[in-house]
Every structure is written in C-alpha cells, then in structure tokens.
Amino acid sequence: MTARRQPPASPATAAEVDDDPWQRLRRFTRARIALGRTGHSQTTDAVLAFGLAHAQARDAVHLPLDVGAVTAALDAAAVPNVAVHSAAPDRADYLRRPDLGRRLDDASRERLAAARPREAPDVVFVMADGLSALATQTHALPLLDATRQRLPQEWRIGPVVVAEQSRVALGDEIGEILGARQVVMLIGERPGLSSPDSLGIYLTHGPRTGRTDAERNCISNVRPEGLPYVQAADRLAFLLRGAAALGRSGVDLKDDSVPALPAG
To answer: I need a labelling partner for 144 at 20 to 30 A (CA). Which of 22, 175, 214, 233 fits?
Structure first.
C-alpha cells in the first residue's frame, strides 16, 4: 500500500515572518535587544551586527586624537588652548600602563607652567582622548560651547587643555599646575558594543595630584543618542556652581538638578 504524499506546506507570508512585536522596541534604543534565534543559535544578522559593533569598539580604542584639528577649531573660536601629553609615550604603553596616563611628561609640565594665568581660573576644561578619541573629537567642542554659555559671566576660564594618552586623573595635575579652582575632564569613555563614541565628564574641585575618584563627580554617556549636549551642559554648570559654593566635589556634592529627560 502506497503512503499518501502530504501536500507541501504553504510558504510563510511576510507578515508571519517579520511581525515580531519585540522588533518594534528596537527603534527606541541602540541596545542589543530582540536579537531572535535560529534553533539554539543567534540569527546570521545578529552575529554579523555583533562582529561589526566589536570591530567599531576596538577601532575607537586605537584611533588617535587629531590634536591639530581640535586646536585649530579652538583657535578659530578664539579660545586659548595648550596641548599636552601624558607620560605614556604611545598607545601601547598607555593601554598597558594606566599609571603613566595619570601623569604628565616633563615637556607638558613646562608648557603648562608657562601658560599659567596670573589670576587663578575658576575652572579649566581638559579635552582628553581617554579610551575613545572618537568621542572627544565628535562631542567635546559642542559640549564645551554649551557649558561656557551657562557659567557665570564673572568666572575666569583658563586655557583649554588638549591631552593625549590621558586618564581621568591627569586632570588633577593639569589643574594643579594651572592653579585652577576646579577642573573638568571631557574624556572618551570605554567603548561599548552600541556606543563607541560615548563622552564622559569628570569634575574635581581643588585639583591636585593624589585626588581619588570619590572626590569627583561624573556625568556619562554624553552623545546625541544618550545624554544630549544641552542637558549635559545644564547638569555640569549646576555641579560647577554647587562645587564652588560648597568648596568640594565628589560624594559630598549631589546632583539635585532636574532629571535630564527627553522632551515629551
């Protein structure tokens, strides 16, 4: 007796294949959600996207800061600036020796000492490559412009320092040499798989070598897809005024500003 052949299954319609309710959430975030699966594995698209994101993160770590372009932009805006370098001679040493990224080289100390203003600056801004020069190259200038507009007019702002191979603590030595009351580090954060260009802000009152992370305030994920420039500048200006009034920063200084939420 011959077995009856079953008719072939009708192909799935586009709606049956693509109408995944989780996919609708992806337009609200660049986070890795709704990846889907094929059997016990991720889909080919998800695997390829992961590989691309990983490559972008690695590239961001190794991409050098274009100091010439940054200083030229500051010159065009008539903003005094000085370029410095940490004690890490190159990127390889910077990544292997975080301690070298926290101290200036000898030539930079001399350059900063010569640029020290006669009167102590109320704040000095440092644009530093950190672990993502891409973030600094892209976001530091517009954030600086937005922040300067929000500071008291009577405040003295020191020369902007552009730092290569820099860790956060390098700002302590920079601020100390320039005699600044406060220092603000605008530095590239460690890249993630959805954010290779995230900029971090670190505020330290009374900068000097040896300050700890508990004595700083941090604002993170500054970029158009994260915390926008205007809202980050509002928070930073609020903290700068608060630190000046309190006489210290870090765990003693709380961010009581209005939460930065998207309009609507």
So the answer is: 214
pTM above 0.70, yes or no: yes
**Taken in order 228, 233, 238, 244, is the CA torsion positive or negative?**
positive
Q: Percent of the chain, pLDDT > 90?
A: 67
DSSP letters for 111-138? HHHHH--SSPPSBEEEEE-TT-HHHHHH
The answer to whether residue 203 is domain-embedded is yes
Domain of 227: which CATH number? Answer: 3.40.50.11240
- Tally of structural domains, the chain: 1
Give a yes or no: residue 44 inside a domain.
Answer: no
Give a yes or no: residue 14 inside a domain: no
Q: Is 70 annotated as a binding residue?
A: no
* Residue entry with tokens 């976001």: 139
Reported as a single tens digit per residue, the pLDDT across 189-201 is 987 777 888 999 9
Q: Could you tell me if 53 and 45 are in contact, meaning their C-beta atoms sit under 8 angstroms apart?
A: no
Pairing of strands 182-188, 124-128: parallel
Distances (CA, A) of 195 to 3, 58, 178: 58, 12, 33
Parent domain of 213 = 65-252
Residue 168, annotated ligand binder? yes
Residue 230 marked in a binding site: no
Write the pLDDT tens digit of every residue in 38-75: 778 877 777 777 777 777 777 677 688 999 999 999 99
140, part of any domain: yes
